[in-house]
C-alpha cells in the first residue's frame, strides 16, 4: 500500500472518530432522559428509539456527503438495498444494544465500518459509556482511542472465556450449551459491539452469536486485524449481505470449536 493510500485511510479513520465522539457525547446526555421507545414488529424484545433513527440519519448523511458514490447498509432502513459488495460499502449500527441503552443505561455501542469491493477496510466501535473508540483496520492497525492494541495470545478452548448469545444459549441452538461447558467460562452482554470490545481488549477469547451485517461488520474488521478468525459457525466465510451465526476466536479456539461442532 502506498503512502498516499495509507494517508487516505488514516484521514478517514480520524474523520469518523470525530463523528463518533460527537454522537457519544449526545448519547450520554440522552441516556438518563426521556427517550421515545417503540417495538419493532410488535416484539417487546426488539426495541428501537428515536436515538437509533436520529443517529442513523445523521451518520448516513455524513457518509453520503463525504463519499457520494458509496452504498450504505444500516439497521433502521435509511440505507440502501444491496445485491453485491462492489465498490465502497459502509455499515452503520446507530445504537447496538438498544435494550441495554433503554433499561440499563450502559453496555451499548455505535458502530461504523467501511468495506471496499468486499474486503474489510476500516472499522469503528464506540463504547459510549466507556468513552472508548476502537478503530482501525488491517493496513493501519487497531487502536483504542490513541493507544495501539496488541494481538491477543492464542489459547485453546478450555483456557478461553467466551462471549455467547444468551438467547441462543437458553434455546440450546448450535451447540451453545456444549461451548459453555467446555470453555473456561462464558459471559453474556447483550451487545455485539461491547462483546467485540471485550475481545479487542483481550478480556475474552471468543464470541459466538447470530448477527446481522451491521452487528458484525466493524467488529470483523478490527478482530481480523488483530489475528482473530471470523467465520460462520461451520468455518465458512461470512455473507456480509445477510445474517450469520458468527464465530470469532483466536486460532486454536476457533479450530477446536469448528471441529467439535462438525463432529
Automatic annotation (TrEMBL):
A Pfam family hit: Inositol_P
The record's section on InterPro entries has:
Inositol_monoP_metal-BS, Inositol_monophosphatase-like
Supply the PROSITE patterns for this chain. IMP_1
The EC code for this enzyme is 3.1.3.11
SUPFAM superfamilies, per this entry?
Carbohydrate phosphatase (SSF56655)
Q: Name one GO molecular function term.
A: fructose 1,6-bisphosphate 1-phosphatase activity
| Keyword field contains Transmembrane helix | no
Is Metal-binding included in the keywords of this UniProt record? yes
Which keywords does the record carry?
A: Hydrolase, Magnesium, Metal-binding
Q: What is this protein called?
A: Fructose-1, 6-bisphosphatase/inositol-1-monophosphatase
Origin species: Convivina praedatoris
Amino acid at each position: 500500500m502506498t503512502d498516499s493510500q495509507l494517508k487516505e485511510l488514516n484521514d478517514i479513520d480520524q474523520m469518523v472518530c470525530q463523528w463518533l465522539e460527537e454522537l457519544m457525547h449526545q448519547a450520554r446526555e440522552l441516556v438518563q432522559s426521556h427517550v421515545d421507545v417503540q417495538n419493532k414488529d410488535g416484539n417487546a424484545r426488539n426495541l428501537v428509539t428515536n436515538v437509533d433513527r436520529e443517529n442513523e440519519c445523521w451518520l448516513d448523511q455524513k457518509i453520503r456527503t463525504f463519499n457520494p458514490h458509496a452504498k450504505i447498509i444500516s439497521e433502521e432502513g435509511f440505507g440502501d438495498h444491496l445485491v453485491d459488495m462492489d465498490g465502497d460499502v459502509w455499515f452503520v449500527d446507530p445504537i447496538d444494544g438498544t435494550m441495554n441503552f433503554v433499561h440499563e443505561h450502559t453496555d451499548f455501542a455505535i458502530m461504523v465500518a467501511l468495506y471496499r469491493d468486499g474486503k474489510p477496510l476500516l472499522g469503528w466501535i464506540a463504547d459510549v459509556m466507556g468513552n472508548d473508540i476502537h478503530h482501525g483496520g488491517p493496513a493501519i492497525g487497531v487502536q483504542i482511542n490513541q493507544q495501539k492494541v496488541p494481538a491477543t495470545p492464542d489459547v485453546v478452548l478450555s483456557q478461553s472465556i467466551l462471549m455467547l448469545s444468551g438467547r441462543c444459549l437458553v434455546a440450546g441452538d448450535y451447540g451453545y450449551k456444549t461451548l459453555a461447558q467446555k470453555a473456561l467460562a462464558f459471559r453474556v452482554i447483550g451487545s455485539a459491539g461491547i462483546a467485540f470490545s471485550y475481545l479487542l481488549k483481550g478480556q475474552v477469547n471468543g464470541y459466538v452469536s447470530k448477527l446481522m451485517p451491521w452487528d458484525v461488520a466493524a467488529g470483523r474488521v478490527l478482530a481480523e486485524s488483530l489475528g482473530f478468525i471470523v467465520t460462520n459457525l461451520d468455518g465458512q466465510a461470512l455473507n456480509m449481505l445477510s445474517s450469520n451465526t458468527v464465530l470469532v476466536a483466536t486460532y486454536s479456539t476457533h479450530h477446536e470449536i469448528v471441529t467439535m461442532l462438525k463432529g
